[in-house]
Specification:
- With 565 residues, the protein is α/β, with parallel strands linked by helices.
- The chain is 27% helix and 24% strand.
- The radius of gyration is 25 Å and the shape is globular.
Length: 565
């Protein structure tokens, strides 16, 4: 399974500036189906309340990973009951925590745990094969088999689920002859493992060991990702977070849509970063080309620009390339005040750390990590899944955009063959003087404003996001089409999933079409589901705009649809 990364574009308390959005997800939660203290409904209420301020609209997701032996007692009801607790701004996704034993050393015994997320089988007996064809008297699995981790991973993959190693370095109790571990068996170079949990560890230095394990995999060329392991049990006992789990351990996920499928797809593609202690990344400035995706991202300059929002002291922002540290920056920090700390002052399009050693055509995996003293000890509080970048050939991006403007399909095809990520790249050269309504626009916006329909169709068929935009106030592809009134291009965008009511600059496509007296396009949009009560950035309803512009035919259509004045 291919897992390539995400680069992070999260703006706090404001609307995001990209087609996808960042959502806080609490992964690895237990309910009364195994050893948790709350029902799915109770867990949903508790976690959604804890994350209410994490996003501007309060949306969040929870991935429940109850222990398999507990779930098996009532497997038929498990997934349905978990999903039933979803509603409004919270999505609950069912998963499992699987266990098998191994021997780290002679006279020692460990139970390694594996999370299996998404696409649960219809019967627990399908998963029973992972352990032993025999069962206990009541039909439950026997978990006394050793060295089963690779078989578990393979079975999880066969079922279409995502395998993530839970608390991979966790040492529960220390001893010489009898040691109790919950460590993942990392001695066998397991194939197919998606990634590791971060933060869900016990004992001094375990998080650091997890980071070292993760970076070693990256150095070895594995495309491992990271999630924040909450391991929340929700018990009412007076136990510390490190025992019953923590709701401050959050996996931020960049998803194209807020749905179970959207969240799982984003996790599978490595569009994640792990956060602890209420820290989060503020803005990774994706304008440099560091866009979330499962493919290698081509860039004209390899730049990492990161901003971390946190409270703490002795703060370090560290960048690793292919598992090796390449830069670190220090801040004294504030023990009482939440502040923004930026890598090389990376708060604009022209700042950030540039990898001057990157060579044209080379692909490298970058990881950004933030450590801070938020407690008596220094700890990792933010760490990304890999950012996979490749330096483009000089002039490739410029020639690609020249081909878009001239409608040169062979040249466009040649560019995308060399670097598929060009489909969602931006022209870094020029301000188009409002012919395209943003400086340095995305490829599809240029095609919608200046190219022909064939160019738009080709870009959409080769990965261009139909709703992609970068900057507050930018219209985006469908709005560019609405401004020009091109029905053919609008039809192509909708065919490829464009949001007909998208509003990125305060105006919907319908508002743009009406304001520009593009009657045929306005009719087309209304025929294909445009909201008749959409408004302009000054608050005018579509019907008011149509009346002011003297569009009598559109007025009749809107009135027939019950549009507000």
């Amino acid at each position: 399974m291919k897992q390539l990364l995400a680069v992070l574009v999260l703006l706090l308390a404001v609307k995001p500036l990209a087609a996808g959005e960042w959502y806080p997800v609490v992964i690895h939660v237990h309910t009364v189906f195994s050893d948790g203290g709350g029902t799915p409904d109770e867990v949903a209420a508790t976690i959604s309340a804890a994350l209410a301020k994490a996003r501007y609209d309060g949306k969040c997701a929870i991935i429940v990973c109850d222990h398999f032996d507990g779930v098996a007692r009532n497997f038929d009801a498990y997934a349905a009951t978990i999903r039933k607790a979803s509603g409004g701004k919270v999505i609950l996704i069912p998963g499992l925590e699987l266990g098998s034993k191994w021997r780290p050393e002679p006279n020692t015994e460990a139970v390694s745990h594996l999370l299996a997320i998404g696409n649960l089988p219809a019967s627990y007996r399908t998963l029973l094969e992972c352990y032993d064809l025999r069962t206990s008297g009541n039909g439950l699995p026997l978990l006394d088999r050793f060295d089963m981790q690779q078989r578990l991973i393979e079975k999880v993959l066969t079922l279409g689920m995502l395998p993530i190693a839970a608390h991979p370095t966790q040492l529960v109790v220390g001893g010489t002859l009898a040691r109790s571990d919950n460590r993942f068996d990392s001695t066998g170079n397991h194939k197919g493992l998606l990634g590791f949990e971060m933060f869900n560890t016990l004992g001094p230095g375990q998080d650091q060991k997890c980071v070292e394990l993760y970076l070693a995999e990256i150095k070895a060329g594995q495309s491992m990702i990271l999630t924040a392991g909450s391991d929340y049990h929700g018990t009412t006992l007076a136990l510390p977070d490190r025992i019953v789990g923590s709701l401050k351990r959050v996996t931020w996920v960049f998803a194209d849509e807020f749905s179970e499928a959207g969240i799982l797809k984003a996790v599978a593609e490595g569009k994640t970063y792990a956060a602890d202690d209420d820290a989060r990344f503020g803005n990774f400035l994706s304008d440099f080309g560091q866009n979330p995706g499962s493919a290698v991202v081509g860039v004209d300059k390899v730049t990492i620009a990161a901003q971390a929002w946190l409270t703490g002291t002795d703060i370090w922002i560290i960048v690793y390339r292919d598992g090796e540290e390449v830069v670190r920056q220090h801040y004294d920090g504030s023990p009482n005040q939440r502040r923004v700390y930026s890598l090389n002052g990376g708060d604009s399009l022209n700042t950030g750390w540039v990898d001057s050693n990157a060579q044209v055509g080379e692909t490298h995996s970058y990881v950004v990590r933030v450590t801070a003293s938020t407690k008596p000890v220094s700890q990792t509080i933010l760490i990304t899944s890999p950012i996979v970048l490749r330096l483009r050939e000089p002039g490739l991006t410029d020639s690609f955009f020249d081909a878009i403007k001239s409608g040169n399909l062979p040249a466009i095809e040649a560019g995308l063959t060399t670097d598929p990520s060009l489909a969602n790249s931006r022209d870094q050269r020029e301000n188009y003087n409002f012919t395209v309504h943003i400086s340095r626009p995305l490829a599809l916006s240029v095609a919608c404003a200046l190219g022909n329909a064939a160019t738009v169709d080709y870009l959409l068929g080769h990965g261009a996001s139909p709703d992609g935009y970068l900057t507050a106030g930018e219209p985006g592809p469908l709005m560019e089409v609405a401004i020009s009134g091109d029905v053919e291009k609008a039809s192509l965008l909708l065919k490829h999933g464009a949001n007909i009511n998208i509003c990125t600059d305060g105006n919907t496509p319908l508002a743009w079409a009406l304001g520009g007296k593009k009657v045929e396009l306005a009719k087309f949009l209304l025929d294909h589901g445009a909201d008749p009560n959409s408004r302009s950035d000054n608050g005018d309803y579509a019907l008011a705009i149509a009346r002011r512009q003297g569009l009598t035919e559109i007025v009749r259509i809107l009135e027939a649809k019950g549009a507000k004045e």
